[in-house]
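Hi there, hope your week has been kind to you so far. It would help a lot if you went through both lines with me. No rush at all, and the record is pasted right below:

***
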Amino acid sequence: MAFRKKNVAILKYNPDILIVSECENEEKLKFGELTPTPTDFTWHGDNENKGIGIFSYSNYKFKKFRNFNSQFRYVIPLAVSGQNKFNLFAIWAMPNKENSKEGYIGQVWRAIQYYKRKLGHDSILIGDFNSNKIWDHTQPRRVGNHSAVHEYLKAKNIHSMYHLQTEEELGKEGTPTYFLYKNNTKPYHIDYCFASNAFLANGFNFSIGEHKDWVKYSDHVPIIADFK
């Protein structure tokens, strides 16, 4: 939260596209005053202080899908245009108060079924999934689990960049992305970037911030996807 007070820390990396969970809306961000003005921006949320913000600091422009389904309120599907055209799914997996079976990773599972025709060779899904294989067995009543999402995307040639790069097993990730209560003794890997083969074919790099550098800003650290 309060991204307007923290944005310098991440913008020094000169992102083409930046996705921020728990981000305040445009009025709070005060572009040109508290937050550098992006070339394009879209925000979605129920609380002016805490939604999901997608920023372009390049020539990329965003257009929300015409069939956007607000039932999956924090899976934001965008057609991105610019030097390349692709589909971007910005994700902040949240509880579903109306139907607990479709909360968190269950919401992601339902969303990728709904948008399955848009999941092709030109897709990126990125953000806070709030999920890991280690919790598969605790979610027997959920409509989908983490492994199911991973395998479904893999079958469409959309891969987790972290796992492709490290060759680590699902559920045995060595590098955390989240620290419960900001405590470095309670690490979890719950943030991901899945990308189609077309983005990966020419080489890529996936990096994760370190707790010591980011703990003053958030209980999460940034994940950074670089495509060649």
The chain has a mean pLDDT of 93. The longest helix spans residues 105-114. Residues 85 and 147 are 29 Å apart (CA to CA). DSSP finds seven helices and 13 strands in the chain.
